[in-house]
Amino acid sequence: MRSIFSVIFIFIMSILGNAQVPNWTEIDLGQEIQPKKIAFDSLGFLWLLSDNGLFKYDGINILRKISPSSSQKSYLCLSQNAKKEFQIGTETGSILSLNPYDNKQSVQQFMNDSLPITFLNCPDLINECIGISYGQGVQIVSNGLRETLNEEGLLKSNEVYNAEFLEKEFILSTDQGLQKFSIEDGKIITKEILLDRPLLDVIITNIHRNRSDLWISYFSNAISNINGSSVNHLILPFKGKISKIQYFENSLYLSSEDGLFEYKNNSWIKKYPLIGQEEVLDFNFDEEGNVWIINGKKKLLKASLLFQKFNVQISQIQAIQFINNEIWIGNNEGLFIARGNKLVKVLNKNVTCLVFQDEIIWVGTYSDGFYALNLKGQILTNEKKWENYDNQSVLSLLPTSEGIYVSSLTGIVKVEYQDRFENPHFTSLNKIIGEGYYYQILKNENAIYFATDGEGIVLLENDTVIKFDHFEDNSKIESVYSMEIDNNNKLWFSSRSYGLGYLENGKAFKRSQQKTSSDYYTTLKKISTGQIIMIRSGSVDVLNPDEGNIIYHEKELKYSEEAPFLNSADVSFNKVYFSHNDFVYEYNHSLNLRTYPDIQIDKILVNLNIVADKNIFKQEQNNFQFNYSGSWLTDPTRLTFKYKLDNFDSNWRYTKDRSVSYPKLEPGKYNFYISASENNDFNGGKMAHYQFKISRYFYNTYWFWGILLISLVSALILWRDDRKRIQLKQSEIERKHIETQLSNLKSQLNPHFLFNSFNTLMGLIEEDQSRSIVFVEKLTDFYRQVLEQGKNQLIRLNEELKLVNIYVDILNERFDNALKITMPKCDLDIFIPPLTIQLLVENAVKHNEIGQIKKLNISIYEEQEFIVVKNNLIPKKYEVNSTGNGLDNIQKRYLLLNDKPVKILKTDEHFIVSLPKIYSTKVASKN
Hints:
Helix content: 10-25%
Radius of gyration: 55 Å
Shape: elongated
Number of helices: 8
Structural class: mainly beta
Distance between the termini: 130 Å
Largest sheet: 5 strands, mixed
């Protein structure tokens, strides 16, 4: 029945393509990690999904980035959006999102009833996402619409395997065929896929979209390609169930229970395993030309798709030419064509070089000149004698429109034919360019370059000869084995003495930052992308002439230490065919290959603690460690890192380590830069950057010291001003004190007081001499204490009261004890300006009548914070002359000595003066 279907391509084993196989390497991930899904982020790092987490792999270290929580149980599927951020479908119906560039995570419940998500396609989790729960139905989000699809609605079957978005539509693969849906007016409408022919099988397990093509796989190990209404069916060369299909670099790849297969040029090529069958659970491609797989044992394996080996072995390959999808091979035993697994011999000669041009194959031989063959291998001509030498040995051939240039052991000869291979004319160039033999001849417009044995490069242009035998630094170029011209007409060459060099502005320069000069290149070949492929004993390297960058492929193959033959490589479009260890390899340089490793700062530790989303730290948080990774999965051990911490490192530093530490950084602003290179050439490479600041303690900042300095200066100024104020106040106190002393002396020594005292004394002498003697003693004691106490600004209250008591005794001799005074037992810590109470008593005597009938009563007592002096009022009948200076003097002295003022109160019956208490704590500063 299947014979009625459209074109069915049968698996062909005997084609050239199936002989090209990669070299696989198993990656040791340890026992804990058993991956089931592979993905790559935009930086080039590999990510692996397993039941117990999502892991990042840089070729050296594997880091767990997400671990499932108890609510999520295990991870089932993985999806990526356009930015290559990750969405993980879980067993409990939630979607865990991870941004691999800043490690931000989020989780949301997606499936209704917490159904497990077996497949996920989320170009945009918010606006466009399909989650499938096999056997349960589909959950879709699209432009604000959220709907569940199942058998009770639009779905033909709940057994849905896969889904793809098709612009404003989406398509599902089920065990009942394909279903297409569109969203119109906020509703989902189902549409049948109209095909001019039926599909091979009703159960469709996978869908993969490549531009306008739609590839689908069936449960019955078959594949169809749908383009519009056109359908092509492919029968597979195996029976195992297909797990994934993916289109990559003009080829279709699929994984199955039997292995990994590539469909290209209408044929299937088995990529893994090379022998037998092995299940492949998942596969993916990085940007360096490698394919990664997870096999049935959940092991991770890698192989380079850049290098494919032909299953044809032949020893001592000296020349290769790719002609009409066939490999022509020359060695010391002859010229062969590789067809499938067989070699067809064309010429029984020791072949040294091959050139194909204008449907003619030019063959150089050792000791038999050169041949011209047609594509059937028939000999058109054989030239073996020139320069009077028979059986010439040819090193290089260059066919041109004006003739063919031949390099032999006797030098350079130009061969011209008058007719097609008839009447050859030989012209020797030895007299023009010099004798010797030449490894290669290269033409560029009107210029012809000759690579010499020991004398550098010779340029012949318009009969003018220029020799380049020294580099600009005056070192010798010596032997040149191979040359190539890039798209900018710059000549690159391989020198035995140094390595890679180039001609520019009439001078020869060394290409810096390359491998050792002893490991020289034997072949340079330019491909269609403009890169130059360079072959040496230990590697096949790629030069980007525009950027000057070299990619080294040293570990993709187990290279021989022997240098390859000069002509054992050929180029076709972006592919290079070369020999290695008696096999022929194809190097396929893709257009989108990554030319520089990317770099990412994985983790920042401050004082051994991981920090995230933070760039301002305290002064004690000054021990920094940066962990980073470079994406060069082809050979991560080749990476060198260049780093610098601004405001700390004066120059760039270099390391192979994947972490650097900076202990005890000073407070300040810093910028950490890190870059990676696989070839020690950092020009044009990517750079990662982290900016942070370490703050100072507040007392260790400029503003704090500025404020402190201003405060100190202000304090000094205030202290100075306050000191001046105190000095002025002290001077005022002293002045007032002196004035008081003078006033008291005047008061006590005025004629009235002395006259009254002497009259009293005279009366006592007449009446009672013993009393007069006592009176004189008291009068003497009074004046003595007045003189002593008047020296101080403050005296103790009890000393003042003693003086007042003597003063009252003197007055009572005069007034016959008509003056009554009461005084308290005073605290010794209370102080008073000298003669203050004495002056108040004197004023009371001065302004009141005193007699036996009208007695003057003076009370001195404590009241809270005051010493109160109170006397009754018995105004004299005549007006007493008074200046009022006594009370005014007392008030001003207290204002200078104390914060509290003197209180004066006069009632109808009493005159009261309240003096603020002055305590001992203030005495030292006052005296």
